[in-house]
Amino acid sequence: MNENLINDLKEVFSNVFNINIEEINENTALYSLPQWDSVKHMDLISSLEEEFLIEFEQSEIESMINFGIVHATIEAYLY
Amino acid sequence: MKILILAESASNPRSFPVNEIVHLEDTYPYQLRGEYKDAIFWQLSFGNITTEELCSQAIAYLIHWNPDIIIVHSGLNDCRPEPLTQFHKDLLNFLSFGLINRFSIIKNFIYHPKVIKKRQISRVSKEKFRKTLKRFQLNFSSSKIYWLEIGANNDYELERPGFHQKAKIFNEQIYEVYKDDMILTNDEIKKANGFNIDNLHWRLSAHKVVSDILVSRIATDFNIRG
Description:
The complex is a heterodimer of chains A (79) and B (226). Chain A contains 4 helices and no strands. Chain A is mostly helical and 79 residues long. Chain B has a 5-stranded parallel β-sheet with strand order 2-1-3-4-5.
């Protein structure tokens, strides 16, 4: 587990969904957070791409439905 | 025990060519079901799918299922040398009102081995393929993942010049990420004369060989017999 990456990700989530960092964990998921709907999902994707200077594949965008998957996906890019 | 199989077209039954029909019961995923009758199986198999597309389906829908074993049979569609990028194929098809797909003379020109030999375009870069391998491993970190070697018969080189060199490079990526959990199959399939007339898809002998290799490996790693 890369703690720095987790913290950076939590910051992006916090900014996009306008919630406290403490509320974000591995189980934070699409639709479990009321704010995380399809529109906010695209906000999240563009924020992540900007933050980590990467460009996701379409299939990755569709599969990133919780914090854990987002974390693993970004980690794979940085691997 | 929960077993997930993710695979491309070679894992599927085939009704063609007519003298090389592979029935569902002959396929290695079905044979594995027969070996492990108490296990719960789930399988996603699609023709012409890239590894990224296949793995994303599993990540999006099956991550909470937590399979004990995942068998992945994918990579050939990523590395196979193509004459054009997917974008250019789609564009050409659109601009020609679909005529390319309807008239094999044009298609045969585009897919001529000389053109492929010169162009050497893969649908997926080595780097992106490696990233997908790692992403899948990170997402299913509590599962035992077996990744089958990418392979085809020697004569496939005549149709797709450069294939074996590409497959070697992509297999190296699999090995670097999955190490000994990469399952080598190609030599055994060739010995069993397991590639069908297209030099790519599998006869029943290949399915039997791969099923035996997997059963033996699972027996070693999990100390269970089929």
